[in-house]
Amino acid sequence: HVQLVESGGGSVQAGASLRLSCEVSGYRHCVAWFRQVIGKARLGVASISSPVGTTYYRDDSLKVRFSISRDSAKNTVFLEMYGLEPGDTGTYYCAAHSGTLCSDWTRYRTWGQGTQVTVS
User: Fold this and answer.
1) Partners of 96 in the beta sheet?
2) 57 has which bridge partners?
3) Of 4, 12, 17, 30, which has the fewest beta carbons less than 10 angstroms from its beta carbon?
4) pLDDT tens for residues 52-80?
5) Which CB contacts under 8 angstroms, 24+ apart, belong to 50-55?
6) Exposed/middle/buried for 72, CB within 10 Å: 0-12, 13-18, 19+?
7) Distance between CA 18 and CA 11 in Å, rounded?
């Protein structure tokens, strides 16, 4: 049974950086970060595969300020966010699935509890 535990959220001012962490217990081929704003659907931000570490982003514009990575030894996936904007505000969830398509945002079924990011 896979468990995902997020950490690293907080309240920051525009322009700041944050690094979110997701500790993964158990193996899943794909681990991703999603963002949800109140009243809106949860949307994928970035994902990473194991063991190769191929990364995917929902769109190219995210690559400018967001970076997904992993520390295999610590079973942890990170989302580094730079130059945060108020529009980045939301609850960030770590998610995982065992399929082969890490860029298929509809396949994610295992979720963490979320960590709040507020940018003002």
Assistant:
1) 31, 110
2) 46
3) 17
4) 899 999 999 999 999 999 999 999 999 99
5) 54/102
6) exposed
7) 10
